[in-house]
Specification:
Layout lengths: L1 H16 L2 E9 L6 H12 L9 H27 L6 H17 L3 E9 L4 H11 L3 E6 L6 H14 L8 E4 L7 H17 L4 E7 L3 H6 L24 H16 L6 E6 L12 H10 L4 E5 L8 H17 L4 E4 L7 H14 L1
Parallel strand pairs: 1-2, 1-3, 3-4, 5-6, 5-7, 7-8
Helix pairs in contact: 2-3, 4-12, 7-9, 7-12, 10-11
């Protein structure tokens, strides 16, 4: 009888307090593949001061008079290559993920999808949560490694949009999850399928790049990756370093896949502008591998949990073509976690750990 009474009391208290909201956020996508929509998306994305961290006027001139006008038509063509009948793959996977996550978590939670840029928007999702009178909110940016330009930007936008709420629920932010066993095993499972089918000579782990200055700015007194041994070790002193997190992700994946360290390369893609970005650059690695006699490569993109331009096109096609043009034979991209059952289960565990 006592346990039954306790359960009744717990249910009553939970009903009175409301649900826990789960805001799942990815980077964003244009509303369509039209040049106008792509230009609109690029302007919102690149005007974020955490993405291009230069003075506002310089950023405004750069984005509106150089990047957006000239980059939008080319980007629109690339988006058309990955667009599905249902729309942007990032959005399609996103909706599938939140729908299945909602089923797995149950009625105690209310799960919504948002994009940091464009739609579905963070303000729209938060307004729905505000009307629901949540007891708590868990913000889940879908970026495995923390960077100011990604997770930091999402967290800032959520806090900014909630400034005028009269009742602010308890909020918890999931800042990174690359060390979660489910995340590592998710990519390892996908990689094993390719490794069972072919004997690959080398394994490339390509992460989205960042300007070197953004890595230094993560620490109030500055940061030196060489002195902190960010490429070889991960410890308390470099735990906030994006580069160190990426190299550590590679080591965890290599261990799970039983790949010797000398057969792995960690590198960084998607450079923008002429300022120094963290190295090595993936484009340089692609050219160097055939010169070393390496002809069969399995490539991972563990900074992305859903396939998009940066995985399908940049790593899967552009780097493959460059690798083969330099004398390589096989360049195979391992797909992202997307909406796989294992990934949904991992997300559910991440949410419950924040509850």
């Amino acid at each position: 009888m006592i346990p039954a009474k306790q359960n009744t009391l717990e249910k009553t208290q939970h009903t009175a307090c409301g649900k826990t909201g789960v805001l799942v956020v990815n980077l964003g996508t244009p509303d369509s593949t039209s040049t106008a929509d792509v230009r609109k998306y690029l302007r919102e994305f690149l005007m974020d001061g955490r993405v291009i961290d230069i003075p506002f006027l310089n950023r405004w001139l750069l984005v509106n008079f150089i990047i957006a006008p000239f980059r939008a038509p080319k980007s629109a063509e690339i988006y058309r290559k990955v667009w599905t009948p249902e729309g942007s793959p990032l959005k399609v996977y996103g909706y599938n993920v939140v729908d299945r996550l909602q089923l797995l978590l149950g009625d105690r939670y209310a799960v919504k999808l948002a994009m940091r840029y464009q739609n579905p928007s963070i303000p729209q999702a938060l307004e729905e949560f505000r009307k629901a009178q949540l007891s708590s909110l868990i913000v889940v940016p879908l970026f495995p490694q923390y960077a100011s330009a990604t997770t930091g930007s999402v967290n800032e936008e959520v806090m900014r949009r909630m400034l005028d709420w009269q009742v602010i629920p308890e909020i918890r932010f999931l800042n990174k999850f690359y060390e979660h066993p489910g995340f590592i095993e998710g990519f390892a499972r996908l990689g094993r399928r390719y490794m069972e089918a072919l004997d690959y000579e080398h394994f490339v782990f390509s992460y989205h790049g960042l300007p070197e200055r953004q890595v230094r700015k993560a620490y109030p007194g500055g940061h030196d990756c060489e002195k902190s041994h960010c490429r070889s070790t991960y410890h308390e002193a470099n735990a906030h370093c994006y580069l160190a997190q990426c190299f550590h992700t590679t080591r965890l994946l290599a261990e799970a896949l039983d790949i010797p360290a000398e057969k792995t390369t960690t590198c960084f893609q998607s450079r923008l502008g002429k300022t120094p970005w963290i190295q090595p650059y993936t484009e340089d690695v692609v050219e160097e591998l055939p010169a070393r006699g390496i002809t069969r490569v399995l490539a991972f993109s563990p900074a992305f949990v859903a396939d998009c331009l940066e995985t399908t096109i940049e790593v899967g096609e552009e780097y493959r073509d460059a690798f083969i043009a330099r004398g390589g034979n096989t360049w195979q991209l391992v797909e992202s976690l997307n909406d796989s059952e294992h990934w949904i289960g991992t997300l559910a565990d991440l949410v419950r750990r924040q509850s």
